[in-house]
Amino acid sequence: MTSLIHSLAERSVLPVLVAVVLAVSPLTARAANVDAGSEVESQARAKFSEGNLAYDLGEFQKALDAYSEAYRLMPLPGFLFNIAQCHRQLGRPERAGFFYRRYLTLSKEEPSNAALVKELIAEVEESVRKEQERRLTREETARDHAKAAALRAQAEATAARRVQQGEGRRTLAPRARAPGQAEAEVKGGDSLLKKWWVWAGAGAVAVIAGGVIYAATAPQPRPTTLGTVR
Prior knowledge:
- The protein has 230 residues and is an all-alpha fold.
- The protein is rod-shaped.
- It is 76% helix and 0% strand.
- It has helices at 2-11, 24-33, 39-56, 60-73, 77-89, 93-106, 114-172, 181-217.
């Protein structure tokens, strides 16, 4: 057991960004004051080791689950730092910032890595700010697209309504004449007019001719007086 504690204690000095093992120190200190055979402590250590292995393999969700279970068994502030690191690796800066702050708040003394934790807090806060800006940009773009789509739909509806109204007016308009029909009608009228004058002239000639014939063949009129007495 002593060798295991020393081994864990040695691992606690590794760089934080390489492996999340800073929870070892409080766990080791706690282990010195409790019975080594404690079942709860053994379970917490097992979960802690499971979390370390998963973190080293890049299985950050599995590591997060293991560290969270270890904290439930033994609520040591050091586990919260490990949990924060997992959230940061999983791309959850807001959750990471929460656990970094809880780690600093619940630690009885300022941790040796407090400066680094504050830098990490600033880093995840910047990530949260940028994500909010991206979200607002996406929402604004979506609103612009929705407005543009509504305007297009309105324009299309207006155009369709105008087409329908235009078709209605065309159905009520006079029937369009076929090409050349008007010219044929004009020519037909001219020919009828010409024929009218021809027939009218022929009629006049016939009347005159009839008068001449009648004058030539009519009997001499009887005198209307008794004549002159000599």
